[in-house]
Amino acid sequence: MTYPTETLTHSDIWAATADLTTLRHKLLDLFCQLAYQEGDFVLSSGLRSSYYVNKTQVTLHPQGALAVGRLLFPLLSVDTQAVGGLTLGADPMVTAVSVVSVYENRPIPALIIRKEAKGYGTKAYIEGPILPEGAKVVVLEDVVTTGQSALKAVERLKAAGYTVNQVIALVDRQQGGAELYQSAGLKFEALFSIEEIQQRYQQIK
């Protein structure tokens, strides 16, 4: 489905006006319409798959981004001091949650974790505000397969002196990520399971 470029009317701006239950249903439909594809794919983990979730079609969509921010924000533990994630997939997510947090009167900064330290300037792995030692950061991930990407973000944040106890994903492919996080002592939850997306995809395709 191609993104329509015409101006939206007020009634079309569901991401800003819908209650959270309706918002979740509409975001699920957006994943099915824009992000979910069936075919032959090689994933970032190196695994082959008969389907692919092109998540940036949703997280960089204007309504999708706002819906992601509104739905993930309530999942953060009350003592969260920042959200962070591994570039590139988590970048729009942490930004959306941080922006929504301002409107919720609970401003939470965003951190972006590089895959490799930049080769100039501060040569930092982590971009964003410098937080106090031990600050509690929640790691956000777009699609979890084996779980290694978010775990790398967790390790980078801990190496910087921060505390990480929670990982939140948009989609869990249910291929070992949840078990990996559990073994690492991390609380994990996902907004959608791949089964839920596939079932809805079959209903509306």
TrEMBL record:
Annotated catalysed reactions: orotidine 5'-phosphate + diphosphate = orotate + 5-phospho-alpha-D-ribose 1-diphosphate
Gene name in the database record: pyrE
Function: Catalyzes the transfer of a ribosyl phosphate group from 5-phosphoribose 1-diphosphate to orotate, leading to the formation of orotidine monophosphate (OMP).
Cofactor: Mg(2+)
Gene Ontology MF annotations: magnesium ion binding; orotate phosphoribosyltransferase activity
Family annotation (Gene3D superfamilies): 3.40.50.2020
EC number(s) reported in the record: 2.4.2.10
UniProt-annotated binding residues for 5-phospho-alpha-D-ribose 1-diphosphate: R114, K115, K118, E141, D142, V143, V144, T145, T146, G147, Q148, S149
Stated name of the protein: Orotate phosphoribosyltransferase
InterPro entries: OPRT (IPR023031), Or_phspho_trans_dom (IPR004467), PRTase-like (IPR029057), PRTase_dom (IPR000836)
